[in-house]
């Protein structure tokens, strides 16, 4: 069975950039529903229910046809939000440091160019979806970084790339506070990005590369 992870901070911890009410509904109701619907879709499929969510995302072809779309949508929703909560933190934001800062500079030129690319991916995603920073094993080094976006609850793991930072641009992520102003939400989101966690995910992704 899959379970809803606790938020690693209080609902109001990301104020004023992300409001308490949005975090309550987003975590408890939206993420909660993805977990419930994923477990319901896989009822009786003990082997699939015992996989990690990361492994399941890379194994959608092995999911029975009848429930594959449900597992893709709700499993994606579970994985994506599990990443999202951890790559944000109170008293965070600013510039990355250490290995991830070096990798960002090497792959994108500098941090500001990366931010521009990432914000453009987040703004350019029509309708609901996500923007991602990923480690792409198909690059010549096996460890190259790329910015991409995905529709709905799809994610890069489904295509063999490893997300290390993700931004939810579904309206449920920002509409209570920002209404239609996705660009304002994206601009303010940088103040809560948890670069320590992004670096941890980066190191984990490249250690066998
Ligand atoms: Mn969401």
Can you give me a brief rundown of this structure?
With 209 residues, this protein is mainly alpha-helical.
Task: Provide a descriptive summary of the structure in words.
With 209 residues, this protein is mainly alpha-helical. It has two domains: 20-86, Helix Hairpins (Orthogonal Bundle); 98-208, 3-Layer(bab) Sandwich (minor pseudopilin epsh fold), CATH 3.55.40. The chain contains nine helices and three strands, in the order ααααααβββααα. Strands 2-1-3 form a three-stranded antiparallel β-sheet. Helix 5 crosses helix 9 (195-206). The two termini are 31 Å apart. Manganese (II) ion (MN) binds at residues 26, 30, 81, 168, 170, 172-173.
Give me the secondary-structure topology.
Elements lengths: L19 H22 L4 H4 L3 H5 L7 H22 L11 H11 L2 H14 L4 E8 L7 E8 L10 E7 L6 H4 L3 H8 L5 H12 L3
Antiparallel strand pairs: 1-2, 1-3
Helix pairs in contact: 1-4, 5-9
The structure holds manganese (II) ion (MN).
